[in-house]
Design brief:
single chain; mainly alpha; 2 domains; 11 helices
Length: about 250
């Protein structure tokens, strides 16, 4: 069987398993925990289906660090709390809820996961032992992205956990320069992985991976939902005027 088919079928089973977990737990936001872990699964499965290389081991290590940290962060964030309001709203609105949630939340997420993973899969399935300037640049870009995601998440967590900040906006630290520094970090990491993969001949099609995560974050399920949640609040509108949406930039003077 073609290795890509094996990965696709494994991913289908993985997302189906998490769908049943969502039924048992009665909360669809377990899909967010499944997201990061799914990348780790696909990375290492494609690694063991192929001839091993240092470059593949490096890329898989980066994906594992990112995916494990993200899933653990989301698990801790959601633990002992009600279901994420986004999913709770869909639970109220959708007819044929379980069918739609399986297709639209879990299987669709699996498709996006596969597409975003293309640079990782391609690197694992390619025989490449060289390590040059592109790999160094890609690693530096990934580290920058990891810094913004981890530090941005930590700053926001600390801010929210302080009762004195209840009802306030996080506008300090990295959040002073970008309204979504953690999302900037996530997208940047995937561009870093693509840069590493781009050193291998024939890798150009894998640019679909970072393009997919960029579009999802900027225009679909990431930033738009959060911006909509706070839209209309006077403090947020002021924050929006002076702070960059995505790329970290010096705040504007009003």
């Amino acid at each position: 069987m073609n290795d890509y088919y094996i990965l696709a079928l494994t991913l289908l089973g993985y997302m189906t398993l998490w769908f049943f977990v969502s039924i048992i737990k009665k909360r669809n936001d377990v899909a967010d925990i499944a997201w990061g872990l799914g990348f780790v699964l696909i990375a290492w499965l494609s690694y063991f289906l192929s001839d091993y290389s240092f470059k593949a081991l490096l890329v898989n290590g980066l994906v594992t660090i990112w995916g494990m940290r993200l899933s653990l962060h989301i698990y801790n964030r959601n633990r002992n709390k009600p279901e994420d309001p986004r999913y709770m709203e869909w639970r109220k609105q959708w007819k044929n809820f379980y069918i739609r949630s399986y297709l639209q939340v879990f299987l669709l997420q699996g498709i996006f996961l596969f597409m975003i993973s293309l640079p990782v899969i391609f690197t694992n399935f390619s025989i490449s032992s060289g390590f040059g300037i592109l790999e160094i640049v890609g690693l530096i870009v990934w580290v920058i992205g990891f810094y913004f995601e981890v530090v941005g998440d930590k700053q926001l967590k600390d801010f929210i956990s302080d009762p004195a900040n209840k009802g306030k906006l996080m506008v300090e630290g990295l959040w002073r320069y970008s309204r979504h520094p953690n999302y900037f970090g996530e997208v940047t990491q995937w561009w870093g992985i693509f840069i590493i993969a781009s050193s291998i001949p024939g890798s150009s099609y894998t640019v679909l991976g970072p393009i997919t995560i960029t579009i999802l974050i900027l225009y679909v399920s990431g930033i738009p939902l959060l911006e909509k949640k706070y839209s209309g609040r006077p403090d947020f509108e002021e924050y929006r005027k002076r702070t960059s949406l995505f790329f970290p930039l010096p705040p504007k003077r009003l």
